[in-house]
Amino acid/peptide transporter (Peptide:H+ symporter) (Corynebacterium otitidis ATCC 51513), 511 residues
Amino acid sequence: MSTTEDGRGPQRSHTPPDAHGGAVPPAGVDPERTFFGHPIGLSSLFSIELWERFSFYGMQGILTFYLYFSVADGGLGLPQATALSLVGVYGGFVYLSSVAASFVADRLLGAERTVRYAAVLVMFGHLALALVPGLTGLAIGLISIGLGSGGVKTASQVVLGQLYSAEDRRRDGGFTLYYLGVNIGALVGPLLTGWVWGREGFHWGFGLAAVGMAVGLIHYLLTRKKNLGTAGREVPSPLPKNRYLPWGLGVAAAAIVVVALIATGVVRLEWLSTIMAATAALAAAAMLISMYRSPKVTPEERRRLIGFIPLLVSSAAFWAIYQTQFTMLAVYFESRVDLQVFGIEITPAQLDSISPFFVVVFSVPFSIMWTKLGDRQWSSPMKFGAANLLIGLGLLLFVPFVGSGANATPVWLVVAAIFLFVMGELLLSPVGNSLATRVAPRYYSSRLFAVWLMSVSVGSSLSGSFGSIFDMSTDAGEAAFFTTAAGATIVVGLVVLLLRGWILRRLEPIR
């Protein structure tokens, strides 16, 4: 869920250091006001990201069920394969929009204004899901939330980076606090929206997500000037005004083509997740090739780019399984898992709070462990390979319960499987975030981080493609999904482990 979301990529700090290695606050900010010893601006960013993640994961937790539940049960009654494809393409779209948001922040609006406008877009999207019935509300809602979430997630971290100087010893701690806010929102969101869905229906759940985003936005608007000052106001590389029209027409033309292809049936809805995965993969490949061929890239940097490729494949394979919590596993949880917990019946959406709970509990111990181990800790390829193995083993836990019937899988098994998922996440995601910034060629630091996000987009999209391959309503389909998906990611993990020497030689001196 989300360790990826603390990946801040390369940050430009515009805040000068003070005599103690701290930072002089941006203009307009009282230096005496702090947030747990950090710049007071962190409180505004912590709040808006907590509530944005509350709304995002709260909505995503019930989205799959809304799409394929019958109209009589409050859903849209879509075929299950179509529903899962739409959830997958939505997940992939969010990470693609993160790349687009970095362009908007760098060249059009500046990071701080991007946060504001993106948050409004998120709130609008949730309101559309809550108030506009049918596929119209779905399309408006998901596109708005996808674009807005990518903007809040990306731009808020840029603003946060500008609250510290590069030498500020509090910097990593500040991002850790920010990441805590991310996971608190991700933890509470599905619990509450899932509960509201169970009592009042889907649209009330979407409405609660909108309320959550509104709370975060109002707090941000009331505090941003006093807490953030000039941080994030600069547009680092403004797009010349004579290029506004060509860019705008290009985006509009692409949107019209996509809508026309879907509306005319040339592209079917159940194909969208696979198309999104292919698009993200091709975009990543094109960016890698352009960097590799650039005369600005040194031979050593080219060598490291080659060494990074197997880890990108490992990442895509990992996220393809991890994101099935919102696609294939969501279907399984609804139909196969005993949802009685201590005599209280929960909704399947509330199970989505398990992974952020484990992330909150174990992220700090993992950080302490790696710090204490220092040079003795596992290399990056070891961590990636182990992550693939762990998530594959998590899927295999379900195999003995295939064919056991409705509500026969104990909820503790889900907890155990998600625990393995999160252990893999903590091995792969923060390491990948850091590695992408260290491996990046000097002149293309932002671009390689975008390639890293593309690997997450590929995996998220593929998690929706499984619905067109495996039929979870049959025992044979269940067995095929759990064994094939687990086997594939375990094979990827073993290959990465076997190649670790080759990878490390190309990444040198990075481990």
